[in-house]
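Hi V.,

You were right to ask for the full record rather than a summary. Here it is.
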Amino acid sequence: MPRAFTDQEKKNIRLKLIESGKIAFGQYGIKKTGIEDLAKMAGISKGAFYQFYPSKEDLYFAVIRQYETGQHQYMHTLLKEKNESERKLLKTVIKNIMDQVDHDPFVRRLLGKEEFDYLWQKFTPEKL
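Predicted structure:
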């Protein structure tokens, strides 16, 4: 029987899985990333992976949600700075997005047709 994780361990493992997923999905894409790879990167067994996510696709969506949350926080912080003109704020937001597309492998893959086609086959349109 697998060892039970404490609440703090679960939180830490979930964060490690999301970070590992972002790295692996960015480097290899969702199709070529295996659950064993993700579990190993997070320091857990393949069986333990399923205590956190039912599939690698569900982890992929968790990575997207974490990225989206970070973007919302960034935008919120920018918009609170009222000393900037709307035009300058818009330029800053667009520059940030373009920098991420240029430098973040996960974001580049996320925007690619191959990832979308794969996910489209795995999930219903409602889940997507």
